UniProtKB/TrEMBL annotation:
This is ATP synthase subunit b. Belongs to the eukaryotic ATPase B chain family. It comes from Fasciola hepatica (Liver fluke). One of its GO terms (molecular function) is proton-transporting ATP synthase activity, rotational mechanism. InterPro entries: ATP_synth_Bsub_B/MI25, ATP_synth_F0_suB.
């Protein structure tokens, strides 16, 4: 409990230390007379509040040092831990440990059997303690008086137990309202903060893998872009080489055709009409000779 209030006091003190400079800064700015008085009062209240919180925190630290300091023998003298709920009972007031202690010997009805032995002779005489079929027919003034006596004792005991439980319930309600409810709300907020912090820690631990995955993704994208550009360069160079090859082939073919046409034209231009006539005559004579030779060949 001391540690919880100590942490709570430290948080409140931190809140006061954060609020007080802002109030002082606001009061230092030029304001009108009512606003200045109001800010001055607020500053006084904030300073008193901060001083009160500091004193409370110091008291808690001193108590914590006295009761939970280094000189405390926690092994031989541990702290007392009060149970949250009372032990299990039966019939609203009989401890369950009594039944468990007598269970191996008497069974389930052990405590009832023992109570019948010890408490039955008290309000009734011995002569009517025997259980018989005529026990319900017993009447008269003594039985009536004992019955009312038992009813009166039961009523007094009931009122006493009822008042005790009402006081206990009121005390528990006050404890629930003043201590347990705020502490549970604070613990719930702290648990929520811790869970949020755990989520953020898990996310921060996953950042390393996320960065690694993004780096690998970027490497793959760069590799794909490099291969695509390399393919583009290959196609561009291939087209240029094809252009140069086609250019050289076309140039050589044009030169050859030009040379052939030039030679043929020069040869044709160099032939005179007489040479052409002689050539034609010689060709005709050769053709005739070849024809005669072809005709003479079958006869042989």
């Amino acid at each position: 409990m001391a540690l919880s209030f100590r942490n709570l006091g430290l948080r409140i003190e931190r809140f006061g230390t954060l609020i007080l400079p802002s109030v002082r800064a606001a009061s230092s700015t030029p304001q009108t007379a009512p606003a200045g008085d109001y800010l001055k009062k607020v500053e006084d209240v904030a300073s008193k509040y901060s001083q009160h919180i500091s004193e409370a925190v110091n008291r808690w630290e001193k108590c914590d040092e006295v009761y939970y300091g280094k000189e405390r023998d926690m092994k031989n003298f541990p702290t007392v831990k009060y149970p949250i709920t009372h032990p299990k009972v039966r019939l609203g007031f009989l401890p369950d440990s009594w039944f468990q202690a007598l269970y191996p010997k008497t069974g389930v009805t052990g405590i009832f059997f023992m109570s019948n032995i010890y408490f039955r002779p008290l309000p009734f005489p011995v002569r009517i303690n025997c259980v018989s079929s005529q026990q319900g027919d017993l009447g008269g003034r003594p039985s009536f008086r004992r019955t009312w006596r038992v009813c009166g004792y039961s009523h007094v005991a009931y009122q006493t137990i009822r008042s005790y439980y009402q006081q206990t319930s009121r005390r528990r309600l006050r404890e629930q309202t003043r201590y347990h409810k705020p502490m549970n709300a604070l613990i719930g907020n702290l648990d929520k903060t811790v869970s949020t912090a755990d989520e953020e820690i898990a996310r921060s631990l996953a950042v390393k893998d996320l960065i690694k995955a993004k780096e690998e993704n970027l490497d793959l994208q760069l590799e794909a872009a490099y291969r695509e550009r390399l393919q583009q360069v290959y196609r561009a160079v291939h087209r240029r080489l094809d252009y140069h090859v086609e250019y050289e082939n076309t140039k050589r073919r044009f030169q050859q055709q030009h040379m052939i046409h030039w030679v043929v034209n020069n040869v044709i231009q160099g032939i005179t009409p007489s040479q052409e006539k002689e050539t034609l005559t010689h060709c005709i004579g050769e053709l005739r000779r070849l024809a005669k030779m072809s005709q003479a060949a079958p006869s042989v």
